[in-house]
Amino acid sequence: MTPLPRHWPTELAPSLRDDLRGWCTLWNVSGIVPEVSVAISWRMTSTLGRAYYNTMTIRLSATLLDPTAAELLRETLCHELAHLAAYRLHGRAIRPHGREWRALLAATGYPPNATIRADALPSCFQIGVAGKRSRRTRKTNVWTRLARLLAR
Ligand SMILES: [Zn+2]
Question: For the whole model, what pTM was predicted?
Fold first, then answer.
């Protein structure tokens, strides 16, 4: 069995920690598990999650703790963990959402996109996403846009 992450927040279910370890095994980077630290941020409102390679830390927005966002929380954790794994496997010269990262996401069964589809969201979030959007808004990263919606 793979080791445990360096830090795991009490707010997150142990099953998600097992998912994290499973993804690392799948990606052949089990060695990073004891280096990875996961934290919840109550101040993070401009994005749902962020990965910091220097400290091997994943920060997740507290908005994801809403019970209706459980699947989104899992996908965000996988998304951010894949950034740490891709950098470890390929170095920092790769593009954040380039083909190396997309290959890792695809292996998990999640769509290898930097954005997520509106119909994958909890129904309570769909209204805002499906609303009329300007050209500029459409170009906004959906993860960023979602965080703004969730922060309302
Ligand atoms: Zn990303």
Answer: 0.78
